[in-house]
Amino acid sequence: MATLSGEAWRVDPEMAAAAPAAALPHVAIRPARGWTGLNLGELWQYRELLLFLIWRDIKVRYKQTALGAAWAILQPVFSMVVFSLFFGRLAKVPSDGIPYPVFAYCALLPWQLFAHALAESSNSVVANERLITKVYFPRLVIPIAGVLAGLVDFAIAFSVLIFLMLRYGIVPTWTIATLPLFVLLAILTALAVGLWLSALNVQYRDVRYTVGFLTQIWLFLSPVAYPSSLVPERWRPLYGLNPMAGVVEGFRWALVGKTPAPGAMLAVSVVVVLLLLVGGLFYFRRMENSFADVI
Amino acid sequence: MSDLAIRCEGIAKQYRIGQRESYRALRDTVTDAVTAPFRRVRAALQGGNGRPANATPTIWALEDISFEVRQGEVLGIIGRNGAGKSTLLKILSRITWPTRGSADIYGRVGSLLEVGTGFHPELTGRENVYLNGAILGMRKSEIARKFDEIVAFSEVEKFIDTPVKHFSSGMYVRLAFSVAAHLDAQVLLVDEVLAVGDLRFWTKCMNKVRSLNQQGVTILLVTHSMWQVQTACRRAICLEHGKIRYDGKPTDAIGYYEGLLKTTGQQDPASGSARDEASMASAGAESIVDFRVQPLGEWSPEGNPLSDSGMQITFSAKLQPRSVVKLLIRVTSPTGLPYFSAFSDPVRADINGSIHCESCIQKLMLMPGQYLLFAALCSVEDSRNLLAAESMAFEVEGPGYTNEALFWNQVDWKIRDAMETGGRA
Lengths: 295, 425
Hints:
The complex is a heterodimer of chains A (295) and B (425). Chain A is mostly helical and 295 residues long. In chain A, 66% of the residues lie in helices and 3% in strands.
């Protein structure tokens, strides 16, 4: 464990006494032992690096592609069209009284945000091997940047939703003000799972093959193509154990406002995400000591 | 103790063999977990202690490394491949953690384990300067303030808005080094990265390192270039098998290292393990100023010497008043292989501690190609002990290739043959 002290940092009083000049920052290098604190203060110190890494990911994402940022729109739109055709028209899946394309797109937005963020963050540590073996910085910056870079795609895809809602004459109610909270929940879900997977990925490259499969299964476990009202009322809180159920229903409620508020289910989802996230943060911090040696 | 920059106490680092090379598949771990009890039972039946003998073979990459570096000191770390140099630097850079022991660093740490870490080929030069700066620990405002200086030093102004994937490797490295060189560090940890770029830029880098040191920056330099150790360092550590085998004067550390190379490493560690406090104390005031080169004889229109032209080298030396030194002029290959060295007789500085020197090389006699010229002060007792050095890259022009020979010489031909003209060298 190493702590950077000096400037705004916590200074070890014993060390400070021995330090040559009070103004000099002091880096103490000690063997790493087991679980450590999160050291979020240091993470805050490196916020500019976080922004630069997000900026880099956004900048290079669609370099040397013919369609560029259009990809951010094409993926959810095509999914929406296919879902509307097969689930909406042919299978006649109910959609809580919302036109099916809007119903599906409201869910695909947070779903794609989550799925991309999860894929990026779980691969992030391995993908940034060069940085990890050559430079020091709080390693948490890497999966966090991987998750946040997806927000730009989300914003682009969101513009299509505005068009869709105009087309179907749906006017959002006050509930739209809660939307940022659901975006945050989707991000945190991706980060929580991404932290576990990215740290595991360093040691076990099996993770790489698991993520695609996991995302696929997870999509069917989430109320994207169907409404959660298909799930019997008393099982719904249990259904909330899948945090994306809370996120997706929350999105629909916030955007269209016709479905009932996802109360108990959402509460369960939030608790699950927080538990996964805190666990993930500590697990990541514990594993990061060996990243440079194992990667 | 008041001027301490780095203190290492008993640093040791253990690796599991193979840990560095390969990651594990989950399947292996599962298989291990399932079969472990059986292996233990079998080992117990065979009279073992229940642990498979070679379960996780380990290796100590570093053992009991203790040293201190004072502020403003330049410490060279040498040793053979696998001696633990890079591991030590990685621990001090906080990239990996020691298994035992502790280290303290006082001052803002900048570590350069690689030039251009995090450069992204799709981003432009300008964007990469910001990205790389942030990765090395600079603030955005700091990079913005130094941006023009960084670009000017790198000499890639024209291409700064071109994606770096279109850069030549030389341009890439120049830009990357420039960012690193403008890192505002008080303690700089450097691994071999100075062995980059073309010769002229290499000299520029070395001079930059020297000027950083003159501004009081403490430098830890891991290198294979004995010449770099001799010219840039006041003190050197020689590592072998993860232990410090020599700590003291650069020349003696080099001597020890060269000894290791000869004896394939099976040497009594005690013989070389000595600390030479005296040489550290003598670190000081010597420097070379006003280092200038002028043409002697005929030079090319581009301002480069030819194989048969000469060179006049003038410089002043600053040192302790009335102290005695020898002056050295040396020409080496870009990689530091000396072609020739010329030592003066012992000379004494005047009451102000200065010596003025004008030296002439009548004929270079070098093949066309790239060279380094050094002017240095060395001690009278041991001419390998350089007190100060200044260097400059130069090019010898002319037909022919460097690789044909090391030296050029004038040959007059008298040939009878059927052709009308004879040839000249």
